[in-house]
Specification:
Helices cover about 35% and strands about 25% of the residues. It contains nine helices and eleven strands. It has a six-stranded mixed sheet, sandwiched between helices. The protein has a three-stranded antiparallel sheet with strand order 2-1-4, covered by helices on one side. It has two domains: about 5-80 and about 155-270, P-loop containing nucleotide triphosphate hydrolases (Rossmann fold); about 90-155, no CATH class. A hairpin with a 4-residue loop joins strand 5 (about 70) and strand 6 (about 75-80). Bound molecules: adenosine-5'-diphosphate. The site of adenosine-5'-diphosphate has 13 residues, from helix 1.
Length: about 270
């Protein structure tokens, strides 16, 4: 049984304007899991990620970290990295300098930092672009830089907030496959926020569906399909069935009933007339 890495115990978050972003959220994420959070806008997905990252205070409850986790000296923080929807790169700095930033801030000596940066760029398929500037890269490549900047610190936990939401479908699909390949190699624990059911099912071994007002978990669905997941998985009936299930729970989150949303229901003869 894999060890727990992140445990949310009765976590609530009420913002200062009175918005109840999360109410009594309980969730345990195990080592090496790839967990996606899906749910309508405003259900508290980003709030969960920010609280796990230590950005902001809990109103009630606690977040516990696994005992086995390596801790970052000297603060004793768990080794985690955050990837946002916007790559948030420094436009005046090269790819190399952008990826080096967290190591520079941590005071890592330059020769060692440079080796780590080149290794991270290799992982995301960007060797050869060290001297490029963000404006010279496509949206997908800029996101790869952002992922390299997260990986350069060798995190054990990766928090990703809709990282591919702004990309076109083909780029998103390629980045999904590449991310999965890396995850299989490195086995980080990943908490991934997305609006996209198909992306969540393709990537994750667990999909957590949230509802809004107040933000809470309404379903926790294990995606019991083996890795590596290839294009064959995307067209399999197993994949389809999981998408349908997540979609139905999402529909419930938005409309309070568990039936299939209209676009997943087969057209009846009557409606074809
Ligand atoms: P999601 O990521 O699912 O779209 P968020 O976690 O961003 O949801 O937000 C959850 C709720 O908390 C929303 O109603 C949002 O408007 C509110 N919220 C988020 N951040 C703040 C803040 N800093 N101050 C007040 N309300 C906030």
């Amino acid at each position: 049984m894999p060890a727990p890495v992140i445990t949310l115990n009765h976590v609530s978050k009420v913002y200062s304007n009175g918005t109840v972003a999360l109410q009594d959220m309980n969730m345990t994420i195990q080592e090496g899991q790839f967990v996606s959070l899906v749910g309508p806008s405003g259900c508290g997905k980003s709030t969960v990620l920010r609280l796990v990252a230590g950005l902001g205070h809990l109103t009630t409850g606690s977040i516990e970290w696994g005992q086995n986790l390596e801790k970052d000296a000297p603060q004793g923080e768990p080794k985690l990295a955050f990837v946002f929807q916007e790559p948030a790169l420094m436009p005046w700095a090269t790819v190399m300098d952008n990826v080096r930033l967290p190591l520079k801030l941590a005071g890592e000596p330059k020769p060692k930092a440079d080796r780590d940066v080149l290794e991270a760029l290799q992982l995301v398929g960007l060797r050869g672009f060290e001297r490029s500037f963000p404006r010279e890269l496509s949206g997908g490549m800029r996101m790869r830089v952002s992922i390299a900047r997260a990986l350069v610190t060798k995190p054990q936990v990766l928090l990703m907030d809709e990282p591919f939401g702004a990309l076109d479908e083909i780029t998103r699909s390629k980045l999904n496959s590449d991310l999965l390949e890396l995850w299989q190699e490195k086995r980080w624990t990943v908490l991934f926020v997305t609006h996209n059911i198909y992306e969540a099912v393709y990537l994750s071994n667990r999909v957590v569906v949230m509802a809004a007002r107040p933000g809470r978990v309404i379903a926790d669905i294990p995606i019991d399909a083996p890795y590596p997941r290839s294009e064959d998985f995307r067209t399999s009936s197993l994949y389809n069935n999981y998408c349908r299930e997540v979609s139905a729970r999402l529909h419930e989150a938005m409309h309070g009933s568990a039936q299939d949303p209209p676009y997943l229901r087969p057209l009846s003869a009557g409606r074809l007339r």
